[in-house]
């Protein structure tokens, strides 16, 4: 990436900077905890000292008040802070909780913050200036502030404070012809997930073709060691990265990066991150007592009825790998003065898993036999099928029929089965009726 000089109305005025005196009075605690984004404080040896006060930050500033940046260019801007302490400021720039430190935001990147690596550029450990040069991209368009500062001294006293309002120095950025990334996250049928999207300029829509991008998996998405390019967009600006070892809850991210200033990580011009949505089936998605003539359901919390949750004749099916969550209930109701057991299962699938399951079960039942047959289609909406499973009960020397409706509503598969009682058959008419109510209830998982 190339650097460009900022355009201002008066170049002589660009050296103007913002200075903030941070008064370390009652608002600052000697034992203040580090901010959450900074992570755990590194273990440090106990020191015996008469110094019981934390370091004092005398001023914090940007080297200029305004920059203009276009496209993929970056503009170098210096940030600095003066820190004093009688026992000396601990100089640990690469710790998980560095000393001293300052944080900029909001900017593209992990948690929308940037913590540059500070180096003492003048003075001494007891009264010195620590600074860093950061490359400002066009995507910082707007106002970026120094939002927090921190430092530890050699006696073990620590300062950590947020800055806001007039105490928070600001840099105004006019960014034009800015790059951007679209982003989508989807699970893979064989396991893992992929991220994909398009890189382009926001004002013209023109693609960033053959543009190198950095991607990472889960904990690597903080780019703490610096982002590294590992994929390239195509001629239309489209990109894709597959993480076949990624788990359902893992995050994936992509970044457009620029050149790194001296002693700093590469500048992040655009950043996107996501993980799979949390999947759960609420109780409201299940058949209720009102659907069962007042009979309350009980949860199925073990592997009971697993062969019906959902049925997979001649399976298992590949779509099972996209199953993310399910809930099952059962109820014993009376039919013609005899008990029968109803099972209701609702499962949520990632991607097009629910559609795949319906396709899989139709094909399997049509060809595999083993007592399975299709009795009807469309009994609870267009994407539903009524199945019968006939099995021979040896000790009773008779056949027993279980009737099952499987249906899809959005990303969910709904199962309603009448398993009968002991050797007695289930009831086809009953599952036809209950399946309509079950599909209506399950639609809640799709926000309906």
Keywords:
mainly beta, 24 strands, five-stranded mixed β-sheet, Immunoglobulin-like, 448 residues, Protein Transport Mog1p, Chain A, 3 domains
Written description of the protein model:
- The chain is mainly beta.
- Residues 1-44 have low confidence and may be disordered.
- It has helices spanning 353-368, 428-442; strands spanning 56-62, 66-70, 74-84, 101-105, 119-123, 127-137, 142-152, 158-162, 170-176, 179-181, 184-187, 193-201, 212-217, 229-232, 238-243, 251-260, 266-275, 298-299, 323-335, 338-349, 372-377, 384-393, 398-409, 412-418.
Indicate the radius of gyration in whole angstroms: 31 Å
User: How many domains?
Assistant: 3
Order of helices and strands: EEEEEEEEEEEEEEEEEEEEHEEEEH
CATH topology of the largest domain: Protein Transport Mog1p, Chain A
Give me the side-by-side strand order of the main sheet: 18-19-20-24-23-22-21
Largest sheet: 7 strands, antiparallel
Distance between the termini: 48 Å
Strand content: 35-45%
Region (Disordered): 85-112
How would you summarize this macromolecular structure in one to three sentences?
The protein has 448 residues and is mainly beta. The protein has helices spanning 353-368, 428-442; strands spanning 56-62, 66-70, 74-84, 101-105, 119-123, 127-137, 142-152, 158-162, 170-176, 179-181, 184-187, 193-201, 212-217, 229-232, 238-243, 251-260, 266-275, 298-299, 323-335, 338-349, 372-377, 384-393, 398-409, 412-418.
């Amino acid at each position: 990436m190339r650097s460009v000089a900022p355009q201002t109305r008066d170049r002589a005025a660009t050296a103007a900077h913002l200075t903030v005196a941070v008064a370390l009075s009652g608002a600052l605690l000697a034992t203040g905890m580090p901010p959450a984004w900074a992570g755990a404080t590194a273990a440090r040896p106990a020191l015996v000292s008469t110094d019981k006060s934390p370091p004092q930050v005398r001023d914090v500033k940007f080297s200029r008040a305004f920059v203009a940046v276009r496209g993929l260019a970056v503009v170098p801007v210096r940030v600095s802070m003066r820190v004093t302490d009688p026992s000396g400021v601990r100089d640990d720039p690469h710790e998980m909780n560095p000393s001293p430190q300052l944080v900029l935001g909001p900017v593209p990147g992990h948690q929308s913050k940037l913590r540059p690596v500070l180096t003492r550029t003048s003075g001494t450990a007891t009264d010195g200036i620590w600074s860093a040069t950061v490359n400002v991209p066009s995507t910082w368009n707007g106002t970026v502030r120094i939002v927090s500062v921190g430092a530890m001294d050699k006696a073990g006293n620590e300062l950590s404070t947020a800055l806001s309002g007039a105490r928070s120095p600001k840099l105004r950025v006019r960014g034009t012809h800015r790059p951007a990334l679209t982003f989508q996250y989807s699970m893979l049928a064989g396991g893992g997930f992929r991220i994909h999207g398009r890189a382009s300029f926001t004002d013209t829509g023109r693609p960033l073709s053959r543009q190198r991008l950095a991607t990472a998996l889960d904990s690597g998405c903080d780019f703490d060691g610096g982002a590294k390019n590992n994929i390239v967009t195509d001629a239309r600006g489209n990109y894709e990265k597959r993480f076949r070892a990624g788990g359902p809850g893992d995050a994936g991210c992509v970044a457009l990066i620029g050149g790194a200033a001296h002693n700093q990580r590469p500048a992040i011009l655009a950043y996107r991150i996501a993980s799979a949505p949390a999947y759960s089936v609420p109780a409201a998605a299940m058949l209720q007592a009102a659907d069962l003539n007042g009979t309350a359901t009980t949860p199925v919390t073990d592997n009971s009825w697993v062969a019906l949750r959902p049925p997979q004749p001649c399976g298992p099916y590949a779509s099972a790998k996209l199953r993310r969550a399910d809930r099952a209930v059962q109820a014993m109701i009376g039919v013609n003065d005899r008990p029968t057991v109803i099972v209701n299962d609702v499962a949520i699938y990632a991607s097009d898993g629910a559609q795949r399951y319906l396709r899989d079960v139709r094909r399997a039942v049509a060809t595999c036999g083993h007592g399975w047959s299709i009795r009807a289609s469309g009994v609870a909406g267009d994407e539903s099928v009524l199945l019968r499973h006939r099995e021979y009960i040896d000790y009773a020397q008779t056949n027993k029929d279980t009737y099952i409706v499987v249906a899809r509503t959005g990303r969910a598969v709904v199962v309603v089965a009448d398993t009968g009682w002991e050797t007695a058959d289930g009831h086809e008419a009953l599952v036809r009726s209950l399946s309509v109510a079950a599909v209506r209830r399950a639609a809640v998982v799709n926000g309906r």
